[in-house]
Amino acid sequence: MPALELHELRKIYATGVEALKGVTLSVQPGDFFALLGPNGAGKSTLIGIVSSLVNASSGEVRVFGVDLHAQRAAAMRMIGLVPQEMNFNLFEKPFDILVNYAGFYGIPRAEAIVCAEQELKRAQLWDKAQTMSRNLSGGMKRRLMIARAMMTRPRLLILDEPTAGVDIEIRRGMWRTLREVNAAGTTVILTTHYLEEAESLCRNLAIIDGGRIIEQGPMKALLAKL
Ligand code: ADP
Ligand code: ADP
């Protein structure tokens, strides 16, 4: 059963813009998948629909077989989302940010404490667990966003342009954390407009342009074509 299955997904915004023109796509469990495309291609719209922030105009979305439209809550429980904008409290410490986030999702405190240690270590932030977040570097703040999203134990982690506008050193630190998340069994899907990022991280990818998937397959096969 695919981790994510999209069938003939369409989105027409109220403005008349047709952002997705029938996208059919399937991502296998355990994959590290990139959706690569230029600005305006429809990447954010697609991620917005899968993460329930945007309503599709038509089409189907299934998360591990669960229909997003019919069983939204059950599907959303399997998804972790890393938003582009940093939206945690800068006057809290990373450890508290993670434990409180888990609490919001009903995870028992004792479990959340164990999980927070694991996620902070995976994100190379364990030594910053008790540092006020406003004092973290840009790269640390971004890795904290990944650690936080992992607190609910999602089977599918989704990131929309996670490294947009950051320098290569910050990007590499995030890549390392994402590789570890994927190695532990979580399916990862990210959007990017950097071929280099897709190439470095992903096993499979789809190229989207003008609201349509124009290529899809293993990274290696697509690189050979370019
Ligand atoms: P719905 O999801 O109900 O169809 P829309 O997403 O179409 O609603 O509308 C959301 C708002 O974003 C609208 O007010 C629209 O004017 C605005 N908007 C229009 N064009 C853009 C754009 N290119 N990027 C971001 N927001 C836009
Ligand atoms: P990408 O993430 O690949 O840059 P988007 O999904 O943001 O692409 O945008 C796809 C198309 O939809 C663009 O033409 C964009 O201007 C338009 N668009 C995005 N969001 C909205 C919105 N809320 N309302 C109207 N048009 C939008």
TrEMBL record:
This protein's source sits in the domain of life called Bacteria
Signal peptide positions are none
In its keyword annotation, does this UniProt entry include Transport? yes
Q: What one GO molecular function would you report for this record?
A: ATP binding
Where's the ABC transporter domain? 4-226
Task: Give the UniProt keywords, A-Z.
Answer: ATP-binding, Nucleotide-binding, Transport
This chain belongs to the protein called: ABC transporter related protein
Organism equals: Dokdonella koreensis DS-123
